[in-house]
Amino acid sequence: MSKQPAPAGVAPGTPPVLQLRGIGKFFPGVIANKDVDLDVWPGEIHALLGENGAGKSTLMNVVTGIYQPEEGEIILDGYGQTFTSPQEAIRAGIGMVHQHFKLVQAFTVAENIHLGWDEAPRIASPAVMEARTREISERFGFPVRPDARVCDLSAGEQQRVEILRVLARKARLLIMDEPTAVLTPEETGELFRALRAFRAQGNAVIIISHKLDEVMEISDRVSILRGGRKVGTFNTADCNPSMLAATMVGRDIVRRNMRARPEGAAPIATDPVMQLRNVSVRDDRGVDTLRDVSLDLYGGEILGIAGVAGNGQRELTHVLTGLMARTSGEILLDGNLVDRADPALFVQAGVGHIPEDRLRSALAPSLSVTANMALREYPYPPIGTHGLYDAQAAGGLARDIAELAQVTIPDFAMPVRNLSGGNQQRLVARREIRIASRVLVAAYPARGLDIGAIATMLGYLTDLRDQGVAVVFISEDLEDLLNVSDRIGVMFHGRLMSVIDAEAADMATIGLLMGGRDATNTQSGAAQ
Amino acid sequence: MATRAFQRLPSAPAGRILVLRLAAIVLSLCIIAGVLALSGHSPVVLAELILRSTLGSRFGLEDLALFMCPLLLTGAAVTVCGTIGLWNIGAEGQFYAGAIAATGVALGLHGPAIMVLPVMTIAGILGGMAWIAVPTLARAYAGVNEIITTLLLNFIASLLTYYLTTGPWRDRISGAQVSTQRLSVSIPEMWGIVHWGFPVAIVIVIGLALVLSRTRWGYEIRIGGANPEAARYAGIPVRLRIISVMLLSGGLAGLAGMFEVAGTVHRLQGGMANNFGYLGIVVAVLARGSCLNVIPAALLMALILDSGIVMQTQQLSASVVLAITGLILFMIAIGDELAHYRPVAGATPKGKAS
Lengths: 528, 354
Known about the structure:
- The complex is a heterodimer of chains A (528) and B (354).
- Chain A is of the alpha/beta class.
- In chain A, 31% of the residues lie in helices and 24% in strands.
- Chain A folds into three domains: 44-51 and 92-248, P-loop containing nucleotide triphosphate hydrolases (Rossmann fold); 270-350 and 437-528, P-loop containing nucleotide triphosphate hydrolases (Rossmann fold, 3-Layer(aba) Sandwich); 360-435, no CATH class.
- In chain A, strands 6-7-8-3-9-10 form a six-stranded mixed β-sheet, with helices on both faces. A six-stranded mixed β-sheet of chain A has the order 16-17-18-13-19-20, with helices on both faces. Chain A has a four-stranded antiparallel β-sheet with strand order 2-1-4-5, covered by helices on one side.
- In chain A, strand 7, helix 6 and strand 8 form a beta-alpha-beta unit.
- With 354 residues, chain B is mostly helical.
- Chain B has a domain at 72-296.
- In chain B, the strands form two sheets. A two-stranded antiparallel ribbon of chain B has the order 1-4. A two-stranded antiparallel ribbon of chain B has the order 2-3.
- In chain B, strand 2 and strand 3 (194-195) form a beta hairpin.
- In chain B, helix 3 (58-83) runs parallel beside helix 7 (197-214), helix 4 (91-108) crosses helix 10 and helix 11 crosses helix 12.
- The termini of chain B are close together.
- The chains are: A alpha/beta (528), B mainly alpha (354).
- Chains A and B meet through helix 10 of A and helix 8 and helix 9 of B.
């Protein structure tokens, strides 16, 4: 795949702007990249697609000199290059716009453009810098207000400043990490127009994304990474979103049926515990992140949620646990309307929540292990009685949780951040399972765990199911989803595309749904 | 880079901090002694004098307790606020507001002390709360940085005190400058000149330590300070907790002002807060977020203040005293930071980066 000929429109003999040959980058215990070959030609927009942790960002950090590769070579315009720092990469014409902007908020646009730029005039008045900035802005077709302070700009405008910063330094290869994540649809349209103009001047763009339709819209070719290796490079014209989604996640799936219930397990309840009725969420950018989702959760059943990350899973999780208010629609708990988004209400109703970013939002890092384990049960006896907090009882609870989670803790009074990330995750999972008497919402509970720990985690979920709890299992791992779930819902663009029977589900169908194709023949198994 | 002789611990053990702080104090005393000796003072004579007039005599101990009383309360005010992750820089202003409110009551309400004092106490607490009310609401509902709002209100409170003590409330009896007349009621004394405010302040600090560690409210405050996102996730009404903590903090500083007016100074005077509000921040930093630690921290600060006064009687200028205070706190800060490091076993002591 890597030995593709130059695309049409490139003069014969022109070398690729960037060639990667056998790039390998390793971190302790992790292969971030291995044997990655990549050609990027002048005048192309090249999309880099992959799941979280597929190695996209590491690869780009290698290209921009932030990391040095352990293996392989970087060839620019036919000449081998090694970058020991990002500055060298910039000098060689490679510029990167990060997902989280690296601008000085208190400076003006002009000051940010000139910051750390060796071509900036030695003595520069604001007027001079603003004039230069205006000229650059017009030359590249990214309108900015040179005298505006960055903190007063919208995300889209800040991004334009970032891009100009890079372009002003004569970048010929522009790398953009998830550029549309913070943009409104209009801003995305503007960005794409500008990128096409940049391409038309014979420059190249690498765009990291996992929004399939945007990849389809903007890119000329797509390279897909999976598990740190490149799966292939395709002409976008030959692709469709479903095929891309399937390639992104599609490894050999070992189907093990974990749906079989043991003797005495609770049957699937007949009445739903929780119901969503046409729930929509609009974020403060005015983007609909959840659209018209209707969903019934039944005790004793695992509902898997599949989908490419960023298609509304986070919002669904937050709506189901009371962390986010819906814009329209209804939520019913045991048939009763829930009129406000209040996490406490959901905890009281027995809804546990393993959040996606659990280390950041489910723990207080500087407080003790004990205090963290009490987070969900402190208002209730034995810990909380008459407004008091019984530290002794909290200690007992923490020991119980640690034992069930099989984490050995030398000292329960030490800050929880002293534990490894894996152990913190196990503790959070166990704490949430304890309170999940009705519903458990688990967002990517296996992420970051090793294989043995993943099996244990899936076992937790099936145990809960057997106790009659309704489990919502959000994952990007189709194998886990297919093995554990009774039903699988697929999310795309904030919409719940379809809920299908997991036993009858096949990869192709799910792939289609993940790519936004509402295949009519999959409706047979769908819930109403 | 491969071999480092020291490893940084994410959290320093309390024992190491204590040892290093003592070392820091001793070291700074040595430096001070050296400088004093070079400038022609005898460190030994001075040290003897300071010890005798602070810890070594009854009069000195009484003075220490009087200094500690406001420092305990302002230190607790800043510490409580810090527990939920906010900085109350305005204890100075809330101190004045409490003092003003208490004075207003004493000037306007005539009756037996048993009746007037409780009203003064409540007025002092409410005064402090009122002074932090605007920063509190701005913080809770608009996300306005409380450091700036509380700080700026200090100047207003201080100038308001000057206005009252030179204007409508000026002393018309003895003609004392920038002062009200002597208040007719005062907090009874329990030991020499030490009034009952001192033991009450100690009890309040201990009580706060218990409230923070042993109540649901305290637990919610601690979670809210350590990670607001986790607090929201756990269903804690963070905004209400911020409001209650900040009001409590203002009330404590206001009470300090009332104690000072009714127990120690017996008048409202311009400049009477004597930096107790700002020193409360120092006390809170020294206490490292623990209410119980506020007691020894306030003692240390009171010792420094008291020694400063003794030194000023020995023809050392006030700025020398300030420099000494700064040096001690500076060394303690270094000690605290060093407490995070421990030697790594097996590392070669002169290991060149390999």
